[in-house]
Structures are given as structure tokens and as C-alpha cells.
Amino acid sequence: MHFAISRFWFCWILVLYSFLAFPLQGEDATSKDSIPVQIELVSEETALQGGHPIWVALHLKMDKDWHIYWKNPGDAGLTPEIEWKNPDGFSVDTAEWPIPKRFEFNGLIGYGYEHETWLLFQVTPPQTLTGTETQLSAKISWLACDENSCLPGTTPVTLKLPIGQGKPSDQAPSFAAARQLIPQKGSGIQAKAHGDLIEIKLPHVDSFTEADYFPEEGSAIDPKADPLLVKEEGGYRLLLRKGEQEEGKQPTSLKGVIALYPNGKSQGNAQAFEVQAQVTASDEPIALADQDGKPIAPFAVEESSSATGSFLVAFILAFIGGMILNLMPCVLPVISFKVLSFVKMADQDRTTTFKHGLSFSAGVILSFWVLAGLMILLQAYGKSVGWGFQLQEPLFVAFLAGLLLVFGLSLFGVFEMGAKITGMASQHSQEGLTGSFLSGILATAVATPCTGPFLGSAIGFAVTLPPLLSMLIFTSLGLGMAFPYLLLAFYPQSLRFLPKPGPWMVIFKELMGFFMIATVIWLVWVFGAQTSALGVVMLLFAFFFLALACWIWGKWGTPVSSSLAKKWSLGGVLLLALIAGSLIYSSTSPLVSAFASGEPANAVVWEDFSEARIAELERKGIPVFIDFTARWCLICQANHLVLDSKGVSKKMDEMGVVRMKADWTKNDEAITAALRRFGRNGVPLYVLYSSTPGSKPVILPQVLTPDLVIGHLDQLEEVLAEND
Fold it and tell me: Are residues 318 and 251 in the same domain?
């Protein structure tokens, strides 16, 4: 009786354990709902002239306690990347970066900005500009961090400027203030290396109390040691401590920014200039006294622990963090799958259990080695990647979601995957060991987006270490994740505490299927944030074909089915899998990704539908193109790809066509009335108004192609030329 009660409570503990695991990651997901960075593109002048350079700026505002990074992010972080999408003939100079701020967390040094900052760019238009206005567009990829988490994001911005004689805009004073924070070009700066110190001569006569140095590249300077500013006759000396990686060899150059503060770093108002100087070796001792003979204190660098101590702490934290990964909701269904396999092996010999435990652990550890090795390799080539970087690729996210969907359908009993794939390890054969190994790989694949307690600090420290030590940290992480299963493999007698195989296993397996589907929903949400609404629709259709393939295999691909039925079902499964794969691949293409939240990624401006605006444009002789559309109209979404294609957009820009969108996603009486005037009661509808007042508008076909739209625009252009 006691054993039966224990078995009853064991089942309920497993269920409760499953539900309690979700909040461990839910808090992070909730915190990412709000975007901590707001960006706008502004101009110093009100208009554009051909061949006349103007200054524009990205104005970035960060929420309280959040920061973004400088062009050198430091030990960790990601430099903002700006991709310009301007009309042909425009050129944009490199960004003018203001003075950054130093951040320190868990021994890691970063450089960046908080509150707000301005990145200035000089834009030069071509000598000849056509039309009445021009639009500048950019896409900014950024990483924002606070003390607890980091959030990557992408923000598109646009700036619409008329063509003509310009004057200073309302933002001109802000540009003047932003220029005060841009480092000046340094000249006449000398740098000498004396033992472990680098001395820089600063020929300045102003009064300063503190200094800071921000390296733009290289590791010649120890970022943890505050620079020493020494006043001398005719200026200052700045003493920097050489970086640990430079010991035993001489740095040859310095490139960075020196900031001098008249009233301390906390007061700001720094005077900064860029440093790009050759470092010459000197055997002369450095004078550790100022011009008045006052001795200078040596560098005071507070180390939280020795390098060895820090490594051991990170090694232990990685092991603990790896064990906690087993509680993450994305890992739980796969891990539960493995626990069930151990339950099935409770009555088998110890050697079998031992082999399967080692196979599963080998899959986990090898996967961590591969992912960590790729991350280190990409970072060595200058790529800014972090843990879980593969989940930043929409194609990988879609593939993983499809794989977990198939696993979920198997858990529900739609079909049986077999020992080769699921790793249920119910056999003594080598196939069962391969399945256990693949289970370890899958568990690692779905675990990488989770950075539970202790894990973030350990990984953050690992990426700053040499490759060999970094791999040891990730090995500890894999060992921690595999430890519970290694324990069961080494001590199979502990399996006696688990309930014997029975009907409860079927119920528990189906329950895990719901958690597997929940993980799929989360991955679809991630995929949607990376692509577009249309991409998500295509992914869901791919899931439909995958589910249909699983159902066919479950009905006619079973061992009891005839040979002919198996062949036909296999052919159907392969065909449906091919269709699903094509949809998954296409859903991540740049063409489909042109829609983000239903809007074109190239930031073409579409005005809202307005009868009064149409009448105004007609009076001014400006052609108008109206797109009557709705989100739920699939033909409309396909036609949007045509309307936002490069050729069509360029033609409309050349003709100065104003694009107007009549969004009928929700009922709108004004749009309904306009549709009826054109003899329609639904969408899509495409109407092209001539620039000639009183002329009859042209209605385009419901299915568009680039040639068709450009052809109608050419006809309109010919009519306008004849009238002129």
C-alpha cells in the first residue's frame, strides 16, 4: 500500500515539476515584450539640394538602466549595425561616434551609451534630383542590455525630405550639441612603452582632474586599470597599463579615444580626441611624480579573484547551470522522453543502462563542443555572436520547430518514430544507442536559448578566455546537463525508486506532447519576430503538410501494413516533406521578409486613404496610386511583393506617384463606399489616378506583376508627355 501511494505522489510530482518549470523562462520572455530602445532619423536641414551634403542623425533613446554599445563594445556586446537603403546616387559617410561610457559587470568591461545618444552621418545626394521629395531609409540592428538581460532588435527608420533650398531645421541645436561630444582629431601625440606601462604625452594646457581611455581596437591596454593623469609643465602625461595579453611583447600602436574631465567623470563635460599613434620602446624609467614632486600612486586594479579562482568559479557555475537546464520548459519534453526510457530499462541488466546513459551524455557534450567551437570560430573572424546564436537564424528556428512538431505528434500516438530516432532505448542493439545519442543532441539544441541561473555569468566569462579554457567551461556545462542521467547510468539501482512501467507512462507521454507543442508555439513566436506575418503563414502551412505526412505514415507505414501500402505511404511522406521543406526555406527568403508586421521592410511610405487628400493631389497635378487591401487577403499580400519590388518602386519614385493604402482589414465605411463607387464589394482593388484633374482613373487587374504595373505607369507617363 505504501508503495502504491508513493507511486501516486511520484506521478503528481512529475506533473507539478513540469508546470513549475515554465516560469523559469517565462520571466525573460515577458521582459522582452517592451522595446528599450527608440530610434528616429532626423536632419539638420529642412530640404535636399542636388550635390549639397547635409547632416543627418540617428537619435537613440534608451529606457532607464538600459544601454547600447560603442563601435568597440568591449569584452561583450554588439556594435549597432546600420544598413542604409537610399535612392540611387546617394552616399553616406561613416558614423561620427560620440564619447562612450564604460560599463563593468562581473569583471567584464563594455563601452557604450545610456539615456540617449546621437550618431551623426554626412549624406551627399547626387547632382540631379527628380521629383518633389526624397526619402532616406535605414535599418539599425542593435543590442540593448541592463544588469539582468540583453535584448537584440532591429529598427527601421525613414526620413522624408523635400527637394529644394533648405534651412536649419528644428533639430539643428541638437546637432550642435551632439558635435560637442564627438572626439576631435588628435595630433602631435607621442606614446612610449616603459615596462608594463605606456606613457602618452598630452600637449594640453586646460585644467583636468581625471581621464579615460577607450580602445578602438586591439588589446594593448588593460581595460580594468584606470588611467593615471599626471600634470606636468605644458600639459599632461597619461599612464596606461599594458594588457595581460601583451606581456612579453611590445605593442606597436594605439588607436582609441582619450577623454579628459575637468571636474571628474561623474560630472561629464569631457574634452575628447582620437588617438592613433605609434608606440616606441623606451628604457628610461617613468617619473612617478608630478611637476610639484608629489608621488603618484601605483595602479589600483581591484580583482574580484585570481585568474585561477575565477576560472574555477566559472567551471562550477557552468556545471550547476547545466543541471538547471534540465528544468527549462524547452528541454523538459525531451528530457522526460529520456526518463521514460530509463523507467523501461528498470528490469534490464546494468550494462545496458550504463551504455545508454553514456550515449546520451556523449550526444550532449559533443553538441556543446560543436556549438561552442562554432561560436569561438565566428568570434575569431570578427563576428558578434553569443550563446544560442543559431537561434538567430530563422531557417534554423523553423527547422527546429518542425522537428519538435513531429516529436509532439509521435507523443500523441499519430505515428511511432521507432528506436532509431526517438532514442527510447528499449532495445539492446546499437540502434538504441544511436537513438540515445541523438536524444542528447536534440536536448542540447533546444536548451541553448535558455540561460538559467548561474549560466549567464559562466558563459559570459568563458567567451573572454583563450579557446582551450573556454571549451573546458562548455564541457563543464555539458557534464552538468548530462549529470542526472550519468548518475542513473552508474547507479541503476536508483531506478527502483521510479514507478514500474504501466498505463501511467502513456498518459505522461501524451502530457509531454502538449509541452512539446507549447515549445513549438514559442519557436513560431521567435520566427515571427525574425521574419514577417507572411513568413509565419507559410511556416504554418509547412507544419500542415508535415502533420499530414506523419498521419499517412502512422496509418499505412506500420509494420503490419502491406509492402505496397508502405511504398505508397513512403512516397507520399517524401512528397509532403519536400513541400514542407520548400515552404520553410521560402518563408525565410528576403522577398517574403519584406513584410515586418504587415509593412514593407524597405520602408516605402504609404499614406492612409483619404478622399480629401486625393482631391488635393488632383488639384496639384500629382498622380496617385491607391491599394485597396486587407491583412486577411492572401492575394493582396502577394501583390504587395510586386508593388514593393525595386523596379516598381523606382518607377513610382521617378514619376512622383503618391502611394495610398486603403486598409480594409477592419470595416471602414469610407473605404466600403469607395469600393462601391468603383463597382466592387471586396478587395483587392488597384486604382491609378492621373495627374490631369478630372481624368478617369485606371483600374488595374486583381493579380499584379511588375511588368504589368510598370506598363500602366509608362502609359500614364506617355499621356502626361502628350498633354505637356
Answer: no
420 with 395, same domain?
yes
Contact predicate 129/163, CB 8 Å: yes
Residue 578 confidence class, pLDDT cut points 50, 70, 90: very high
Q: Is the pLDDT of residue 650 over 80?
A: yes
Instruction: Return the amino acid letter for 82.
Output: I
Q: Which residue has the cell 506583376?
A: 705
Q: How many CA atoms lie within 13 A of 288 on its CB side?
A: 9
Q: How many CB atoms within 10 Å of residue 26?
A: 11
* CB within 8 Å of 347: residues ≥ 6 apart: none
Please say whether the beta carbons of 425 and 435 come within 8 A.
yes
Full strand arrangement of the beta sheet holding 658-663: 607-608, 658-663, 624-629, 685-689, 698-700
CA–CA dist 171, 53 (Å, integer) = 17
Is residue 17 in a domain? no
State the helix-helix crossing angle for 430-447 and 350-380, rounded to 10 degrees.
Answer: 40
What average pLDDT does range 503-513 have in this prediction? 73
DSSP-derived 3-state class of residue 321: helix
**For residue 491, what pLDDT is reported?**
72
CA-to-CA distance for 161 and 184, rounded, in angstroms?
30
Q: Which domain holds residue 673?
A: 604-723
Last residue of a domain, which of 565, 597, 629? Answer: 597
Which range of 81-85, 228-232, 333-337, 364-368 scores highest in mean pLDDT? It is 81-85
Nine-digit cell at 97?
A: 561616434
The domain boundary, picked from 578, 597, 616, lies at 597
